[in-house]
Amino acid sequence: xxxxxxxxxxxxxxxxxxxxxxxxxxxxxxxxxxxxxxxxxxxxxxxxxxxxxxxxxxxxxxxxxxxxxxxxxxxxxxxxxxxxxxxxxxxxxxxxxxxxxxxxxxxxxxxxxxxxxxxxxxxxxxxxxxxxxxxxxxxxxxxxxxxxxxxxxxxxxxxxxxxxxxxxxxxxxxxxxxxxxxxxxxxxxxxxxxxxxxxxxxxxxxxxxxxxxxxxxxxxxxxxxxxxxxxxxxxxxxxxxxxxxxxxxxxxxxxxxxxxxxxxxxxxxxxxxxxxx
Length: 277
Hints:
The protein is of the alpha/beta class. The protein is built from nine helices and seven strands. The longest helix is centred in the last third of the chain and has 19 residues, at about 245-260. It is globular.
């Protein structure tokens, strides 16, 4: 059940993950709110967001008859995308922002949508319910073992898990203590705990220990981090806006630019198959 106090807090102060997507380029009722996958174009926010979701669908080998759970679905654009472009008929969603869940429940009543943290899926009693669990541009706010421990009980054996995360590059271990301290605060500004990040070898080992096989890690740093930063830089050229909503967007773009240019943190997509109940 939604928490009335949580709803009041969100209405007054806004959720920490909320962003004014109309300024990004989507004024839909169920709008996109991810960093996007920007291939050769840097001008259409909706298409870039759809493209990032498509990367997830491809890796999950999404099929019409799959029972699908979308974690951190935001305002609901990805849900429409799974329905319209992949003909998914058995779809559920979990989102932490109460206002988003209320809107989804009104606009897409056929979808089972829940206002809950995706780190607490056990509260929803969804044991072994899904063939695919998808999380577009959200899982990196959580610790990987906690995320996997929450997801595994709701995912069927041989089910696909696909999500976006952040990873240390091989050069991270050679950084100075000053640089590491700098990144501690940079990542904290994006609600990411730097101690939760791993390198590729550690990620692969963690997935295996948690009962996943066929792990694939794809580096999307250029298409996502560099792409979003370029889009915002082009979009805000010549504009002078100093309100908090715009500052939040521009600071996110600057962080993406720094992460990409420094090359210490990689934006990745992880896909894996559950091997056991």
